[in-house]
Amino acid sequence: MVKVGWIVNLALLSITFMAFGGLIGFSATQSLDYSSSFQSVLTDQYIQSIIHFSIEQALYSSVLSVLFAIPVARGLYFLNRLPLKGLFLSLCT
Fold it and tell me: What predicted TM-score, i.e. pTM, was given to this entire model?
């Protein structure tokens, strides 16, 4: 089986760079000084609210995923004769 983890990591890294590149495009200054342009983007109240909402949404999503995953994992481990357990595990791997 070929490991494709590095491809996924590379794709996520490139998406991150594109997103921050887009944030720089929202800059109010039109100068070629990218350091001040990036700083002005990060100090913009609208951009800060977008970043805050994104981080908050990611936090809620990860907490809910873990809260739902724990009972499912315990059920799969302790209930040996669970209906469709084999099908579910084959879809997860």
Answer: 0.51
Task: Spell out the SS3 assignment of the chain.
Answer: CCCCHHHHHHHHHHHHHHHHHHHHHCCCCCCCCHHHHHHHHHCCHHHHHHHHHHHHHHHHHHHHHHHHHHHHHHHHHHCCCCCCHHHHHHHHC
Q: pLDDT of 50-82, one tens digit each?
A: 889 999 999 999 999 999 999 988 988 888 888
Amino acid making up residue 87: L
**Contact predicate 28/46, CB 8 Å:** no
**CA-CA distance, 80 to 86, in Å (whole number)?**
10
Residue for token digits 């109240």?
A: 45
Q: What residues contact residue 31 under an 8 Å CB cut-off, 6+ apart?
A: 37
CA angle (30 as vertex; 25, 32 as ends), nearest 5: 90
